Amino acid sequence: MKRLVRVRVRCVLFSCVVSLFLQSGLSAGGLPEGYPASQRRKVVLTPHWKFHRGDPDASFYGSDVDDSRWEEVSVPHTLKLTDVNLDGCDDSKFQETFHRTVGWYRRVIEVSENPTKVFLEFEGAHQVTDLWVNGEHVGQHAIGGYTPFHFDITSFVSAGENQIALRVDNRKRDDTPPDPGPYDYVKFSGLYRDVYLVETGGLRVTFAWEDFYAGVSVTTPTVDPLNGNATIAVRTTVRNESEERKDCRVLTRVVDGDGVVVMRMADTQSIPAGEDRTFNQCGGIDEDLHLWSCDDPYLYRVNTTVWDNDDVIDCVENPLGVRSLALSKEHGVLLNGEPVDLFGSNRHQHYAFIGDAMPNSLHYKDVLQLKQKGMNIIRTAHYPQDDALLDACDRLGVLVYEEAPTWIGIGNDAWFDNLERAARRMVRNHRNHPSIIIWGAGINHRGAVPRLHYAIKQEDPTRWTASNNSAWTGEQNSGVCDLFTNMDYRGVDDWTGEEYLLAMEGKLTPESIALYGGDPLRLGLIHWTAHAYYTFHPTNKSDNRMRSGMMDGFRNAALPEDESYGEPVAMRIDVDMEGRELTADGNDIVLAYTRFVDKDGKLVPGPDVDVRYVVDGPGEIVGEGEIDGANPAPVSRGAAPVLIRAGLTAGEIHITAECEGFDTVEATLASVPFNPDRIETQARAIYDLRRLHVDMGGEGQLVQFGWQSWVGENNQPATFEADFLGGMRATLKPASDGGITRWLGEMNVKGRNGFVMGEGVCVIDPEGFALELSGLPEGRYELTTYHHAPVSNTNSMDPNRERLKTLKIHQIPVASVVDVTTEMGSTKVTVSTGKQVPDEGPGKAVVAFEVDDSSPVEFRFRDADGERGVWLNGFELRQAR
Predict the structure, then answer these.
(1) Mean pLDDT of all residues in the chain?
(2) DSSP three-state, residue 320
(3) Given this model, what pLDDT does residue 826 score?
(4) CA torsion, points 350, 354, 359, 365, in degrees to nearest 10?
(5) 565 pLDDT exceeds 90?
(6) Quick count: other Cβ atoms within 10 Å of Cβ 274?
(7) If DSSP codes are grouped into helix, strand and coil, which group holds residue 369?
(8) What is the reported pLDDT for 29?
(9) Which residues lie closer than 8 Å to 294 by C-beta, 6 or more apart?
(10) Does the global pTM surpass 0.90?
(11) Any idea of the CA torsion for 283, 289, 292, 298, to the nearest 10 degrees?
């Protein structure tokens, strides 16, 4: 008898579904295993900028400009740090003078030897940006400061070092929203979001904001939480930047949270030189579907690979969270069929001292903090916000209501043109984030703007639009928008109660939570605001222009007012490193807080004192010696905060806090090295593990959709061949010469994979039977075998009813428990039976094994309690890690 497994096959057997615990190993080139290496290069240009403020009419763009005495800065960057009192500026809400100047930024970039295209990509800059490369003017971006843009610099650069110069102009303009004002928040300045050098080959996925058909758009036309399936549509636009026609293949793979490919789609189109083609692909997941929700924000990845013949030219990834959204007059918002009350907060991207020049880590921390407070929605008041914020909301399960840049003001025709352009860019840039459920399609306080609504709906018909009303002016309904969103500070008196109402602003109190949580037409309430924000609106503090907020501008919350405290006797220093690292890029920031405790160790509001900090190691205190309150830091809301910025060298940073009358306290943290390669830092392993589904049966078999058919004959040799991993063969035979094999064709069975379980082969042999797999290449595999003894559901409407009367196979006594044996051991599987597949699924065995050479692998099946027939309906063979 042939050995069950030759040489070395390690087997682990389970009688239930097993989980694959996947670890990401790095392959050559710094990319994780399985992640395609393409001609795309994306480098984040964080450090090594030279900066000069002012002189808008200067010629600081020339290659011969001496910038040796300019300040060296890292991006994100604001034109000027500001204290909490806006440096004493007394502008009105039109912000006539504050930061109304320009910033000049210069830097050397390194271009590779032979890229086809070279771009500079900007996530945002305030608010009009001019670019020069090697002294030549490339172009100007003037839509506004809150949406992304790029410049094609291919014809301006050469391989090696190239000098770039930027004039970032924040002077007031009547055609650039939210200017000319008024607005109750401060519009800061500078190169305040990330900047990238992007290189591509001759075929590239276009930038998402380039056009209506551009980039990658991922939608889920249907999501069925009840039956666990989803339809996934992916639209990809590729541009042929070469000088000849290209036959372009786009491979789209949906990758699960473990890195395993769960869906593949591939299409080929011929693209003439200099033209775009859009690939429309549609597939789905109908097995082991994971839904995205606030409680379980499961994320897939959509990996898009662009091929020219056998060469990978481009590769990009986008997030995918599968979720369904609906409105119900009985239950309100339904997320995956479950009611969700929307309670959260408005959020300005303002931070004390640095304005809105926040590193990505602080955006993430903001979302984490709100999530920990039990909130499930953020409104991006009153403009599109950083990509890092949306990434954090996707990862942490926080819903988003994002809106175009406005407040109350309305501008001229050119202003409306730019507002529409900004709204469209907002949607195109963030449309693949599952956290976004609402687009603001109105002007804050003014209500719905039809032009915005129609533009947004054209861009994204899958999400709701919101009207952005106020309770004291304008129409008191949703207008053309999907949702009536209003401010509820003292009630919304004119609400009809006949349409849905979302309080986009208000105060979260026990009373408001009860009101909005108890009425399904009241969808929820979004608190004003998460954090104190900078404003020229009057405040109740003469020395602090940071207004409102559950937390102050340093993200510190006040201690409860109704508690009793003792006198402060000691200090405690807390460095907020939860859920993050500190990257040594010259820009990343971490907050440290010195708090005070009484003799029982209980936190107290703190005395009216200042705390002085000393930092040793590769870090510095933001604003030290430049602005009031940076260091020493006054106590506010019970803590003295300090912003620690990482240097350019990774290492240990030691922080000391001193205050007269208290013992010194210390803390130590370590920064990590900075890798500017954004593809390497974001890429995760991809395991494109192939799967083979085999449906076994006799003549008349009804093959399960998506499965391959193995049709056998009674008591005849049974062999199946498939083009799987270059070709494999499966052979089934009884263990003894007297064994009997009976192959059943159609036998109607209801339930999941009923066409598989309604037919198969029943083997009667005291020693059972063997299933041999041969031709498999070396590697790890997982074999799942299905065991269900079918009983017919045939009725008078079945055209095969008479034929089935002659079949007696279902009357054969069959095993109720089957032993599955390999050389390494055995397991038992309980056979399911009947006219319907059980809800928990059929009987199945899962065997993990490894092939070290080309020898066949054999598995033995027999009755565990006697000599009855053993059913095998089909099997699934998949690669494993």
Answers:
(1) 92
(2) strand
(3) 86
(4) -50
(5) no
(6) 10
(7) helix
(8) 55
(9) 335, 340, 376, 397, 398, 399
(10) yes
(11) -110
Report the greatest alpha carbon distance in the chain: 100
Asked if 879 and 779 touch (Cβ cutoff 8 Å), the reply is yes
- Tracing tokens 């919350």 back to the chain, one arrives at 557
Strands 589-597 and 639-646: what pairing?
antiparallel
CA-based torsion, 332, 333, 334, 338: positive or negative: negative
pLDDT of 492 above 60: yes
- How buried is residue 514: exposed, middle or buried, by Cβ count under 10 Å (0-12/13-18/19+)? exposed
Cβ count within 10 A of residue 246: 23
pLDDT tens digit sequence for 680-712: 999 999 999 999 999 999 998 889 888 999 999
Q: Which two tokens stand for residue 707?
A: 């499965």
Q: Answer for the pair 334, 324: CB distance below 8 angstroms, yes or no.
A: yes
Alpha-carbon gap, residue 604 to 299, rounded angstroms: 41
At residue 681, φ and ψ (nearest 5 deg) are -75, -25
- What's at 203, amino acid-wise? L
Sign of CA dihedral 854, 855, 861, 864: negative
* Alpha-carbon dihedral sign for residues 221, 225, 230, 234: positive
State yes or no: pLDDT of 16 exceeds 70.
no
> pLDDT at residue 555 above 80?
yes
Phi-psi region of 561 (alpha: psi -120 to 50; beta: other; left: phi over 0): alpha
- The DSSP call for residue 185 is S
Q: 109 and 138 in contact (C-beta within 8 Å)?
A: no
- The confidence score (pLDDT) of residue 804 equals 36
Distance from C-alpha of 835 to C-alpha of 837, rounded to nearest angstrom: 7
CA distances from 383 to 413, 419, 702, 824 (A): 20, 11, 56, 62
pLDDT at 560 over 60: yes
Of 132-141, 255-264, 525-534, 785-794, the poorest mean pLDDT is in 785-794
Three-state SS at 569: coil
Here the tokens at position 612 are 């002085």
Mean pLDDT of 736-762: 90
Tell me the pLDDT band of 562, cut-offs 50, 70 and 90: low
Least confident of 70-74, 383-387, 455-459, 549-553: 549-553
Identify residue 348 by its one-letter amino acid code: H
3-state secondary structure of 681: helix
870, 763 in Cβ contact below 8 A? yes
CB count, 10 Å around CB of 21? 7
Other residues' Cβ atoms within 10 Å of the Cβ of residue 630: 20
